[in-house]
Design brief:
Strand content: 25-35%
Distance between the termini: 52 Å
Helix content: 25-40%
Mean pLDDT: 81
Low-confidence stretches: 1-42, 88-92, 166-178
Shape: globular
Radius of gyration: 20 Å
Largest sheet: 8 strands, mixed
Length: about 350
């Protein structure tokens, strides 16, 4: 084991066994997280903005006056502007990439595919990585572990080869609704703890979650009680505020690529519009793909080239723009504000956090 890594270290200070204890609760009850405070968006808001051309490559050289920021369709003044470009004096050294292998929601054969693809990515360019990369193994059979971030892809491969990829222990995952709900609970718990862990570190974090995602079908047509809708809305607000505040951009790569049923691949799109209140809250709003898009990241599910898709995500961390503006106060708590950023250039794609929840 290399001195750089010092061995595999624990990522979370919790055990997934707590997720199984939740099975004894009422199946309809949805608990709000105690560790995340709803709201707290403040007024000064920072956005990490990716701008790409039609081929998906980052666009460099844009100026502040090229950007227009709309808050609930109303133009807002950009208070500060920074162009971050790898290899230049303006480059931000505090950018980290996290590659997360999801054993909770991926069958064993899929986990093997993910691992091989990560090794292929890490070995590109003779193992010289553009940004520091950490690899996380997320399993329900033990405490998740990770490597220390490094630009040395070969050292990361060596550490990855020593990791234990175990089979899932969620036996109910193939037994209909209740098993799928267990997967969803475990996954959202993991995301919450993981975001808290990453948020404690400075700088921008690109989290590439390689997984089909947790089940969305419990959110399709499932009628929640008013109490449970409020609990789900609590989670929606907390994730929206937390990911933005901690500068975590979430990406989802589906290892099955285009082989998945088309309807299943796009089912998350109906939940992309931000929930404005508890009455609009659905379990599907907490899907991995939904949270990824809303955080300014991507959902990549149209290719079997997992290593290439990882490289596509990492490019967002090599060149991007950082904008700040003063958010508008809400008329009440957790008032949803839609954000839109426009560029005065043709055929460019802009991705950033899609909204925030304002406080009075």
């Amino acid at each position: 084991m290399s001195k750089r890594c010092g061995g595999w270290i624990c990522l979370f200070c919790f055990s997934f066994l707590s997720g199984f204890a939740q099975q004894n609760r009422s199946r309809e009850q949805v608990e709000p997280p105690a560790s995340v405070q709803v709201g707290g968006s403040g007024h000064r808001i920072t956005l990490d903005v990716a701008v790409t051309d039609k081929s998906g490559k980052p666009v460099l050289g844009l100026k502040q006056n090229d950007f227009t920021l709309l808050d609930n369709k109303q133009p807002q003044k950009i208070v500060s502007f920074q162009a971050v470009a790898s290899g230049t004096a303006a480059a931000n050294p505090l950018v980290e990439v996290v590659l997360l292998v999801d054993e909770v929601n991926t069958p064993f054969v899929g986990v093997a595919m993910e691992r091989d693809a990560i090794v292929k990515f890490l070995g590109r360019n003779s193992g010289q990585l553009a940004l520091p990369v950490a690899v996380v193994l997320l399993s329900d059979s033990g405490t998740p572990v990770r490597t220390e971030p490094s630009r040395d892809g070969n050292a990361l491969i060596a550490d990855l080869n020593k990791a234990d990829f175990g089979l899932r222990t969620i036996r109910k995952s193939v037994q209909g609704f209740y098993g799928a709900d267990d997967q969803r609970r475990l996954s959202i718990d993991a995301l919450r703890q993981f975001a808290n862990y990453e948020g404690a570190k400075p700088g921008r974090k690109l989290v590439v979650w390689i997984s089909p995602g947790w089940p969305l079908f419990p959110g399709l047509g499932l009628e929640l009680s008013s109490e449970n809708q409020h609990a789900v809305f609590h989670d929606i607000v907390a994730f929206s505020d937390g990911l933005r505040r901690d500068r975590v951009t979430l990406y989802n790569i589906d290892p099955w690529g285009p082989t998945k049923d088309e309807l299943q691949r796009i089912s998350y799109e109906q939940f992309l519009k931000g929930a404005k209140n508890a009455g609009e809250a659905q379990l599907g709003s907490l899907g991995l793909q939904v949270l990824a898009v809303q955080s300014g990241g991507r959902v990549l599910n149209a290719s079997n080239d997992i290593a290439g898709e990882i490289a596509t995500c990492v490019m967002d961390g090599t060149s991007f723009y950082v904008l700040t503006f003063d958010g508008l106060p809400g008329d009440g708590p957790n008032e949803y504000h839609e954000l839109e950023i426009k560029i005065d250039k043709p055929k460019l794609t802009v991705r950033a956090q899609s909204g925030y929840y304002a406080q009075p």
